[in-house]
Write a structure and sequence with these properties.
Structural class: alpha+beta
Order of helices and strands: EEEEEEEEEEEEEEHEEEEHEEEHHEEH
Largest sheet: 9 strands, antiparallel
Low-confidence stretches: 163-198
Radius of gyration: 26 Å
Mean pLDDT: 82
Oligomer: single chain
Helix content: 10-25%
Number of strands: 23
Distance between the termini: 45 Å
Length: 451
């Protein structure tokens, strides 16, 4: 196993130099750790040399593999190891596409990608496959998962060009020897849901906005949007569980939303996809869209296209004045109340979806998607307290040319399911906060004054 420094050519398993280099943007502090032999996978060379890590509390490890073959598929392994406490960290590989997972293991256990190693299993079984970017690079980002301050702990990295042969051999590798221990701040989170889901999805699972469906994974939503809108870059951003009202946990980050904007005069696009918090993180909860059209579309063509896609709406306002702005608008809704009955009155539709194109900064589908995503109790739902599965479009036209649509906005969410799952998040944060408090109290008992 070969140690590597920043920017040097990595060696293969034969000890020969390759064209692959690893550049660190941040690397952490080295520390020596002995891995449990039962967690070291089988390989043609002894992997017990992964006897250390680089760590940093409240930090982010960023590195990039360069010199790879552009758009070629590679197997990649990231090894995590911690001494004195369990570890949990979020790992992201960025090449032509993105791979994300949580890596977790107990004290002294060697984690290999998203699994704990086993001395009876070959290393090839743990590989993840990723395609290098057009410039022949793969970017690696690692940060501690959970409460703020939790460290990343990286023991090694390996990559191989052949991902199909069962005896895949890493062609370049690096290990990180280390030097000093730092006590943990919190215990690992559990993967067990706070409670069984009380509410199941009531909106038609085949309904979508730009191909994005509720409960789709955020990763799949990102790929789908990129196919639909190739001129826009879509990425998943993280959020803190502290955004939830009643949350007792701050600093626990999770993949939370996709928000993208594109302005190409005279057109304008905004797309917002929000997900759930833990333990349901990574799933789509709301979808919003706003389009100011670069060229007008016949109003009836817009209406006909929506009816062809979703079927006859339960509410169709017909074209009428919008109010604050000098526009004409049409609202189409396929929404229900909490009991599943169709919303077929203007007041009910306004309360539940409520797209308001006269308030472009706060009333579009993208803003509503963000607003409802964090409701964790019906008392916070306000005017939407009797709303169920919501799918609404609003189309606008200028009075001088009412036969042409100039913009439209859409929103889709299932409020009872959001409230149910977000309540799970609140209960999850309570359990994790109790664990952290218990560990801090235990650590406090062992402290002694320096006299």
């Amino acid at each position: 196993w070969n140690a590597a420094s920043n920017g040097t050519e990595l060696k293969n398993t034969k000890g020969h130099a390759t064209n692959v280099r690893l550049h660190f943007q941040s690397g952490g502090t080295p520390f020596g750790v002995e891995p449990n032999p039962e967690t070291i996978p089988r390989f043609e060379h002894d992997l017990s040399g992964l006897d250390g890590n680089h760590y940093q509390f409240n930090g982010t490890f960023v590195a990039q593999l360069v010199g790879l073959e552009p758009r070629a598929a590679y197997a990649i392994w990231l090894f995590g190891l911690r001494s004195g406490a369990s570890m949990e960290q979020r790992v992201r590989f960025d090449g032509e596409a993105r791979i994300e997972f949580v890596q977790s293991a107990g004290d002294g256990q060697l984690a290999v990608n998203n699994k704990i190693g086993n001395s009876q299993a070959p290393l090839a079984e743990y590989a993840r496959t990723i395609t290098a970017a057009d410039d022949g690079t793969i970017r690696i980002t690692v940060r501690g998962a959970g409460p703020q301050g939790r460290p990343y702990v990286i023991s090694g990295l390996a990559i191989a060009a052949d991902t199909t042969h069962p005896t895949t051999r890493p062609v370049a590798s690096t290990s990180h020897p280390t030097t000093s221990a730092v006590p943990p701040k919190a215990t690992s989170k559990t993967n067990t849901p706070a409670r069984a889901i009380r509410v199941t999805q009531s909106i038609d699972p085949q309904r979508d906005i730009l191909g994005v469906r509720l409960d789709m994974s955020l990763e799949e939503a990102t790929r789908t949007l990129a196919e639909q809108k190739p001129d826009i870059r879509f990425t998943i951003s993280e959020q803190d569980t502290g955004v939830y009202l009643d949350s007792r946990l701050r600093g626990w980050m999770f993949p939370a939303f996709i928000l993208a904007k594109k302005q190409s005069m005279p057109g304008y696009t905004t797309i917002s996809v929000h997900g759930y918090g833990p333990p349901h993180e990574g799933k789509v909860a709301t979808v919003g869209r706003y389009e100011f059209l670069p060229e007008p579309i016949p109003w009836q063509n817009m209406v006909d296209a929506l009816i062809e896609k979703y079927g006859a709406p339960s509410f169709n306002s017909g074209q009428g004045p919008s109010g604050a702005r000098n526009l004409l608008e049409t609202t189409l809704s396929w929404s229900t109340d909490r009991g599943g009955s169709p919303l077929n009155s203007a007041d009910a539709v306004k309360r539940c979806g409520g797209i308001n194109m006269s308030q472009a900064d706060t009333g579009t589908g993208t803003q509503i998607a963000m607003e409802v995503g964090y409701v964790s109790n019906w008392k916070y739902a306000g005017v939407r307290s009797n709303c169920g599965a919501i799918l609404e479009y609003k189309i606008t036209a200028h009075p001088s040319r009412p036969e042409y649509a100039t913009a439209y906005s859409a929103v889709m969410f299932d409020l009872p399911l959001i409230v149910s799952r977000n309540l799970d998040t609140i209960e999850f944060t309570a359990r994790e906060a109790d664990k952290i408090a218990a560990e801090e109290a235990k650590n406090a008992q062992s402290r002694k004054p320096s006299l």
